[in-house]
Amino acid sequence: MSWLSTSQRAVAQSLVQQQDTPFFCYDLDKLSAHVKPLVDQQVVKLWYAVKANPLSHIIKTLDHAGFNFDVASSGELDQVLSQGVTPARVLNTGPAKSLKQIRHFANQGVRIFVAESHNQVAWLNQVACEFDLQFDVLLRVQLRFDKAQHNPLGGNTLTPFGLGSEQWQALTLSDYTHLDFVGLHIFQWGNMLCSDTLAELWQAMVSPLVQLASELGIALKVLDLGGGLGIPYDAHSTALNWTKLLDTLASIKSATQVDELWMELGRYAVGECGFYLNPVVEQKQNYGAHQLIVAGGVNHLLRPAVTGQAFPAELLRQSDANTADFHIHGPLCTALDKLGTLALPSDSADGDWLVFSQCGAYGYTESMPFFLCHELPAEFVISGGEVTCARAAQPASSYLR
Ligand SMILES: Cc1ncc(COP(=O)(O)O)c(C=O)c1O
């Protein structure tokens, strides 16, 4: 099975004729087709979590498709606004909202915020007061569940994302005259691939959230379930079924009696549209194992080192050789620089290119590009069947001072 379509493979083969360092390519045609059914429904209002991939072309494609935007820093906000998105379609989430950042957001016209602490509530009220505005605010809630699995987003463990119900109960809404508390936000599990587990988690949230809203005196107009929708990273996993998810979301909407259900999608929106081309520097045998040393590693794709989960990879050229398991190591001098152990044709060797798929989300901008002074990767986009360079590769001299 190949993760690339025939046309994507042809683009990759043509680009490697011109490139000699690793690069990303995002298929905006595939992205547009993928997100159409996501936005084409009345159940849930969708925001794009810009952290997944802030490239201007991706933002414009999602803007055109009808997504709103969830930003978590002043940099993300400025990037979204400079693509022509109006601030009324921006939501601010994130655990580190300083007074300075809140003022910047207010100044730029943002009026919807997720508050993650009592201090954030007070600072939001202070800034709204200074600017003589009303902000819409959702309180981010962190719940604990029986039988919960560990998860990179925290699951049941202590995280900075919001507060427990008990902590929120101490809030007196009437103290904050410039804030309209419109709802609650909750998001603790990432990359979920089982729709039944997602449904169980969401359903388990309903009663504690409805109870908290009533104790606080919040008329629950909005419930924001965050992101967390997964994509397959190996051939054995199956993709989520959006229609089935919508049924579950519709039942959550009616159980909570909210006017609006919101989600901020990152991975599920853009993860599948990107691939990463990586030249093989060397093959070697070591302690009975096959190793491939590749030009780009966690300096361009950090996620495997953080989560222990590889991006799927295949050899770009056709090979009839039997497959063997290869340990794939990047160029940095840390054993953490490993992109996974993957089955590849046994004749994979220097001069070959590997193509890693599912790299549209949490790829380059999540990584650590400066360690050991390697090149920054180029980024290409495919749009209307045409390939353009969004950003050329940059040598280390472009960022070293
Ligand atoms: C507040 C918030 N919403 C949404 C997302 C996007 O999550 P995902 O990529 O799982 O859709 C994130 C990711 O960290 C987040 O922090």
From TrEMBL:
Pfam families: Orn_Arg_deC_N, Orn_DAP_Arg_deC. Keywords: Lyase, Pyridoxal phosphate. Its cofactor is pyridoxal 5'-phosphate. The keyword Lyase applies. The active site is at C333. It comes from the Bacteria. Gene3D superfamilies: Alanine racemase, Lyase, Ornithine Decarboxylase, Chain A, domain 1. One of its GO terms (biological process) is polyamine biosynthetic process. The modification N6-(pyridoxal phosphate)lysine is found at K51. The keyword Hydrolase does not apply. This is Diaminopimelate decarboxylase. It comes from Pseudoalteromonas peptidolytica F12-50-A1.
